[in-house]
Specification:
The protein has about 450 residues and is an alpha/beta fold. It has helices at about 45-60, 75-85, 90-105, 125-135, 215-230, 245-260, 290-295, 300-305, 320-335, 345, 355-365, 370-380, 385-400, 415-425, 430-445; strands at about 10, 15-20, 25-30, 65-70, 140, 145-150, 190-195, 215, 230-240, 260-270, 270-275, 275-280, 315, 445-450, 455-460. Helices cover about 40% and strands about 15% of the residues. Strand 14 (about 445-450) and strand 15 (about 455-460) form a beta hairpin. The structure holds adenosine monophosphate and zinc ion.
Length: about 450
Amino acid sequence: MGKALRVRLFDTERREELSLEPVDGKTYRFYCCGPTVYGPAHIGNFRTFVMQDVLRRALELGGLKTKHVRNITDVDDKTIRDSVAAGQTLEDFTTQWREQFHADCEALGCLKPHIEPSAVKHIPEQITMIEELIEKGHAYASDDGSVYFKISSYEGYGKLSRLDTRELDLGKTQNERANTDEYDKDNAADFVLWKGRREEDGANFWESPWGQGRPGWHLECSAMIRKYLGDTFDLHSGGVDLIFPHHDNEIAQSKCSCGGDFAKHWFHITHLRVDGAKMSKSKGNLYTLSDLAEKGHSAMEVRYVLLSGHYKKPINFTLDSLHAAQEALGKLAKAADGRSAPNYRETLKSQNYGVFSSAIEKLNDDMNTAGALGELFGNLKSIESGEDWHGFFAVLAALGLTLPELTAAEVPAEIAELAAKRWDARQAKDWAASDQLRDELAAKGWVIKDGTEGYEVVPS
Ligand code: AMP
Ligand code: ZN
């Protein structure tokens, strides 16, 4: 067999595609900023998590072992604000949303990360990091019991996002400093590592050398990365909104406290949009998996839509795209013709993909999932050998797609609707409409079998 297939991926920091090789020569170790568990994750968030899942699958298909760490943000401005408003403890409040997140990930076919650390369970590690930063002159305590990172103390600050240093206002007074977790480039200033206790935080405070308070959001990832991946690791990932300030702040905290190279590669996923705007909770333009399930769409259809565009380009989400996904998955299921997919581990055993080699190549070339889907469909008619079938299922496994079973119970919503209309037309003895709907269904690959009491619709 030839050389193992390697994934090439664009690196946000160096602005070029690089081949992914593990630093330690054995296991590819990567970290993904996880969900903030203060409500259901929306399908925009899942664009990022699904792409990270596909990256892991592509690496494993290429013969690499992986170590995937993804945190849970369960202590920050938003989780505290909303748990207090809900009259729940932070733990009860975040537990329900963490569980919902896990159920959604499972429905979407995402592999579980190997380690999923919780921020609130790593407060001592975060305090230790702050102590080191103060000791090394990179952080200072202020009168309000908060601790700030001094960005002027780190020459490389803002390198990832190419923040123009002239934009930095190093002379900001304490009240203008970035005490909130989120801010934009124009407001770059010393950022908060530890927030002094505030009344509105309720019972959510911890003891520290600087008094009672809680960690700032950016710190948790640095502290947990250090614990689970060390000071140099392979790749770090999140949505593009995290490049600044979150990831630039992580780099500053980690390099100044631990030394090391921190992440060797940065993988950022472009946003899912709705009507031209980023899908986000604050804009209220979001869809969750359960919103879409109510409209009759499965999580796999959502996954398909999320894979249908290149991660470097925005995807504009529409309900029509879900209908198209439903059809596409149906077409693949029809091609599989009752063959069931081997289990994931089995798929990793051979790298001979027959006519589907081109699909795997697309994926390995900067995670071109849309291109891989194109090659998958383009080669369906050429399947002949066992190797081709292995390739077919390997592409599905790499993309994390499972195929629907085409039983009567799983007739797509659109088809069921047409069939119902046709039945009504027939009952009304409107034969012209009934025939037209029957033809429309036939064109979409479905046949109606009429009985005395009702009908059944089956794939043709
Ligand atoms: P959060 O729960 O807000 O911390 O976000 C979890 C992940 O989703 C982060 O990596 C974000 O960058 C990412 N994200 C947020 N909104 C979107 C979106 N509309 N499209 C893609 N990724 C997003
Ligand atoms: Zn992070």
